[in-house]
Design brief:
The chain has 799 residues and is of the alpha+beta class. Strands 1, 2, 3, 6, 7, 8, 9, 10, 11, 14 and 15 form an eleven-stranded mixed beta sheet that branches. The chain has a six-stranded mixed beta barrel with strand order 18-19-24-21-23-22. Strands 17-25-16-26 form a four-stranded antiparallel beta sheet. Strand 12 (206-207) and strand 13 form a beta hairpin.
């Protein structure tokens, strides 16, 4: 029976090659999108799961609250883990990760820049699973000042030679390389290149042998804890209350503060929804939901195509169904045969989809365009294979179930007489499905255009300082910092350069956070501020403007005698006259004073509102050498800077970037999200048009005699197109009306991630409908034109 069904199926598909091709194309695109999305979601949802002890590793983060101060931090005091290990038997071991003081490695008098260097504990390799190419993971960090490096760093330092026992210099100290590990996978939240054994103890943590509670309120490193099997988080937090009272609250009571511990499971960190000030980049789980919905929608659109084309061609199959019923086939066997036909097409589409997805991931630029880097490892994941097979079966059933039920009801007598006519309900079902297709397609396209409006708004919004014509040179190394004055003097002689400054802090990228003491209502109060540090040229270089007072002149002897705040800080403190208000760092004995108020500017990305800010004077060279230049002839400018650099700095190539590009990078995740949704919206429209092409071709073919008669009676092709297209036009307009509020609501929710939102463009909503109308009109016009150009005698001669 199955052989007969297969024979009937293949014969029917071959005789209707055009419609078979349309069905296969739609199903292949839908299943390809589903396979890609499954691999993407698997990669995203498996962050840090490759670690052997992932289910027992936790990160301790903290919520700190006091008058004028409240924030979440992913960092902890480095003294905390050893203290916890002594008092809590649930802890098996721990590893602390403290950033190196300098971001450079010296080997044989040659210096290499490297930003991801951390000091850690010997058991770091128990916390994070590393695949060692050289050395032993268990003992690599056992000795103080031993170091393990990534394969990338090893290649840069030693080429193809062995790295083991090589001596390199970090932070002015010689360390021995004891291991080389393969580069970490992309789906890990914490990436490092170099780990050095030995976390430095802070002197102020113990005073005269007595622990200083304030140390715990000053986090300096990321701490990861490996718990013993059977760990109970709730019980641990209950027991921690006594520890908190004993060690945290002595200083907490001094500042009237509160401390709350958060225990985060390693595998949950990447998609944690709590905003943490100093956390590593995190994912947005809402995006995954959106991508999943759109991906399934594409597959569903392909199913709709199949349903529409199968039921629309019912008249052509009526005689076949009638003959099979006369020969003894009952309704059930017919339904199974028609379902089998659907499953065969879906199975062929699956094979084509796997090949297409493999080519797309491994051999196209699609991955890099979206900023993702997973590989095609489908056959190494049995759970995904099972899920895809289940999806394919469901797709076959969804696609074939209604046509099977619909076609199996055909009466054999009417079918064999040739007077079987499709029911009105069937036409309404097809129209409803086409309407649903357009709702999805227009809705996704509208959402894409509104997202682009928001991103364009962010990139073009005035920030309160000049983001263009700012060149930022990497000066993290000690040599460049010692040569800063020389570079500055030479740069300032260049007529294209307007100003030169140096700082560790850049608006939009590097912003600090500090607790100050400030004058408020005649008394000194503690208050947290965001901070930038800069020299006397900092304001001029960035084109910031003062509202009142003055900026630093450069003759200030210390960085805590004078302060400049922004308007938001002055408003928060209710300072009507901010100038000369007292201000200082938390432990400052002799307070300084406010000398100026800078106009508000956006020093974070536009995801965030403007917060209270203090600009602190620092005349020491920082990790960024900042150059403001005149517009025009940038090539000559870069050539001149490069020439000066090579004459002055011998060990480092010039490493520079433009500030406006760095600021655009802040929205890279949003841009990638928009690119992915744009791709999916194009795919949605394309799949819908595939089905519409087949349906239009069939409908026009069914009405070819009507078209011939109208041609004989003098109708023009334009009038025939108008008649054929009128019903579809109504469906598109209705779909636009339905999809507009849905798209508006979804995009408004998405835009809540930004402190500044573009006004919703009615034009973007209208243009989506116009695009759908024009594309559909083009297809219908081509098909009608092709049919109407035939001689009417050819289409009427069978009457």
């Amino acid at each position: 029976m199955n052989f007969i069904n297969l024979k009937f199926t293949l014969r029917f598909l071959w005789r209707n090659k055009f419609f078979t091709l349309l069905n296969l194309l739609g199903l292949t695109l839908g299943i390809t999108a589903s396979i890609w999305l499954m691999l993407y979601l698997k990669n995203e949802l498996s962050y840090d799961q490759y670690h052997v002890n992932a289910d027992r590793v936790y990160r301790f983060s903290h919520h700190i609250k006091a008058p004028g101060v409240e924030f979440n931090t992913a960092f902890s005091a480095n003294e905390l883990p050893p203290m916890l290990a002594e008092e809590f038997p649930e802890i098996e071991t721990f590893a602390r990760f403290s950033p190196a003081n300098t971001r450079e490695i010296t080997f044989q008098n040659e210096t290499f820049r490297e930003s991801d260097i951390f000091y850690t504990d010997p058991d770091a390799t128990k916390i994070f699973t590393l695949d060692f190419e050289e050395g032993n993971a268990k003992s690599a960090l056992a000795e103080p000042l031993s170091t393990i490096i990534s394969k990338d760093v090893s290649q840069r330092l030693f080429g193809d030679g062995s790295a083991i026992n090589q001596i390199i210099e970090i932070d002015g100290r010689n360390v021995k390389v004891t291991g080389v590990f393969k580069n970490q996978p992309e789906n890990t939240h914490f990436k490092f290149q170099v780990l050095v054994s030995g976390v430095a103890q802070r002197e102020f943590a113990f005073q005269d042998g007595v622990f200083n509670s304030e140390a715990l309120w000053n986090p300096d490193c990321a701490n990861y804890i490996l718990m013993r099997p059977g760990f109970d988080k709730a019980k641990f937090l209950e027991k921690f209350k006594a520890f908190n009272e004993k060690y945290y609250m002595p200083f907490g009571r001094v500042v009237n503060g509160e401390h709350f511990l958060r225990i985060q499971k390693l595998v949950d960190i990447h998609y944690d929804t709590v905003k943490i000030e100093d956390d590593f980049p995190k994912g947005n789980s809402n995006n995954l939901v959106v991508f999943t919905i759109i991906g399934l929608s594409i597959l569903f659109l392909a199913c709709i195509n199949y349903i529409n084309l199968s039921t629309a061609r019912a008249g052509l199959r009526a005689r076949e169904i009638g003959i099979r019923k006369v020969l003894g086939s009952d309704a059930l066997s017919l339904r199974m045969a028609l379902l089998f036909e659907s499953v065969v097409q879906v199975s062929v589409a699956l094979i084509l989809s796997v090949i297409t997805a493999w080519l797309l991931i491994e051999y196209s630029s699609f991955q890099s365009l979206l900023g993702v880097g997973f590989s095609f490892n489908l056959f190494a994941q049995p759970d995904l294979i099972g899920l895809i097979l289940l999806l394919v079966i469901c797709t076959g059933l969804i696609s074939g179930l209604y046509p099977a039920l619909y076609l199996a009801k055909i009466k054999p007598v009417k079918a064999l007489k040739g007077n079987w006519v499709a029911s009105r309900s069937g036409n309404w079902v097809r129209r409803g499905l086409v309407l649903f297709q357009f709702i999805i397609s227009i809705g996704v396209l509208t959402g894409t255009l509104l997202m682009k409006d928001q991103l364009n708004f962010l990139q073009n919004k005035e920030l309160g300082y000049d983001k263009d014509q700012i060149l930022v040179i990497n000066s993290q190394d000690s040599l460049t910092q010692t040569k800063f004055k020389v570079l500055k003097e030479v740069f300032e002689q260049n007529p294209q350069i307007e100003a030169v400054s140096s700082s560790d802090f850049l608006p939009g990228t590097d912003v600090g956070q500090t607790v100050f003491m400030v004058e408020k209502d005649g008394e000194m109060h503690q208050q947290e501020f965001k901070t930038l540090q800069g020299d006397a040229n900092y304001l001029e270089t960035f084109g910031m403007s003062l509202k009142e007072g003055r900026f630093y002149r450069g003759d200030e002897t210390r960085g805590n005698a004078y302060f400049v705040v922004n308007e938001t800080a002055a408003r928060m403190l209710n300072w009507e006259d901010p100038i000369d208000k007292k201000m200082g760092f938390f432990h400052q004995e002799e307070f300084g004073r406010v000398i100026g108020v800078v106009n508000d500017f956006n020093f974070f990305s536009l995801h965030n509102p403007i917060e209270p800010l203090v600009i602190v004077f620092n005349n020491q060279p920082g990790s960024h050498l900042i150059v403001r230049f005149r517009q025009g002839n940038e090539e000559n400018l870069i050539a001149g800077i490069k020439s000066t650099w090579e004459e002055t700095i011998l060990n480092y190539p010039l490493d520079y970037s433009f500030l406006n590009q760095s600021l655009r990078d802040q929205y890279e995740a949003d841009k990638n999200q928009n690119t992915l949704i744009t791709s999916m919206s194009i795919l949605c429209i394309f799949v819908s048009l595939i089905g519409l092409s087949g349906l239009s071709a069939f409908n026009v073919n069914q009405r070819r005699k009507e078209i011939g008669i109208r041609k004989v009676l003098g109708a023009m092709t334009r009038q025939i197109i108008q008649i054929i297209f009128s019903d579809t036009l109504k469906i598109i307009v209705l779909a636009g009306v339905i999809s507009a509020p849905i798209s508006y609501f979804i995009i408004k929710k998405w835009a809540e991630n930004f402190a500044y939102q573009a006004p919703v463009s009615v034009f973007s909503m209208v243009i989506s409908v116009i695009v759908a109308i024009l594309l559909t009109l083009s297809i219908v016009s081509i098909i009608v034109w092709y049919t109407s150009r035939k001689n009417p005698s050819e289409t009427l001669r069978y009457e």
